[in-house]
Amino acid sequence: MSAPHLRNPGDDALRQEWGTVVDNELRLDREAATRIVEALNADLSGLYILFNQLRKHYWTLEGAEVRPVVEFLEDAADRLSEATDEIAIRVHALGGVPVNGPMGIRQHAPMHIEGAAVYALRASLENDLEAYAILVAQLREHIELAAEIGDETTVEILREHLRTIEEDAHDVEKFLADDTLVRMDD
Questions:
Q1: Do 34 and 22 meet the contact criterion of CB atoms below 8 Å apart?
Q2: What residue stretches are annotated with the Ferritin/DPS domain (predicted)?
Q3: What is the radius of gyration, based on Cα positions, of the chain?
Q4: Are 123 and 64 in contact (CB under 8 A)?
Q5: Exposure winner among 13, 34, 73, 111, fewest CB in 10 A?
Q6: pLDDT digits (tens, 9 = 90+) for 142-169
Q7: Where are the chain's structural domains?
Q8: What's the fold here for domain 28-185?
């Protein structure tokens, strides 16, 4: 049995094509807005990927001492969800269409999606830490871009989320430094 397809509303219902940037009420030049929208959509893609990866690990991790890791993953995924909402709203305010759906996410992704298999705790956390590192580097670049363009609101939004992501990455590093995780996976 094939899955039912959702129909696309007619052209008369279309407000804006994917991949376009229209004039915005923020009065930011369309060329500058386009550059920031492209950067923010890459950030959104990475945040979506990491969010889903953390949720997968939250659902599947096992072990005697996994409880604090699971609690962290649940909270960290919630923080990523908040970041995606704020950044997606900013993309729209800038006249763009926020990245959405698997195809758009893959098109803009700064990282590969982790395989569907279930991995050991240490390997899962190492994958998470790598994704955090990629996002941190990318967010720093995009903060510089937004500052160069003069979009201070985007700078503030990205700086706030960069701090949170760096703190969460540091927590993952602490879990990986824990000798008990070494014993669990050996």
A1: no
A2: 38-179
A3: 19
A4: no
A5: 13
A6: 999 999 999 999 999 999 999 999 999 9
A7: 28-185
A8: Ferritin (1.20.1260)
Query: How far apart, in whole angstroms, are the C-alpha atoms of residue 156 and residue 3?
Result: 42
Residues 6 or more apart in contact with residue 111 via CB below 8 angstroms: 46, 49, 50, 130, 131, 134
Q: How far is CA 13 from the centre of its chain?
A: 29
CA dihedral 56, 59, 65, 69 (to 10 degrees): 50
Count the neighbouring beta carbons within 10 Å of the beta carbon of residue 70.
Answer: 17
- Supply the pLDDT for residue 11: 63
- Both tokens of 5, joined, read 């397809």
Residue type, 144: E
Question: What is the DSSP code string of 45-83?
Answer: HHHHHHHHHHHHHHHH--STT-HHHHHHHHHHHHHHHHH
Please classify residue 148 by burial: count the beta carbons closer than 10 Å to its beta carbon, then call 0-12 exposed, 13-18 middle and 19+ buried. exposed
Residue 156: other Cβ atoms inside 10 A:
12
**Tokens in use for 119?**
């991995």
Query: d(Cα 145, Cα 125) in Å, to the nearest integer?
Result: 30
Instruction: Compute the distance between CA of residue 124 and CA of residue 4 in angstroms, rounded to an integer.
Output: 34
What's at 151, amino acid-wise? D
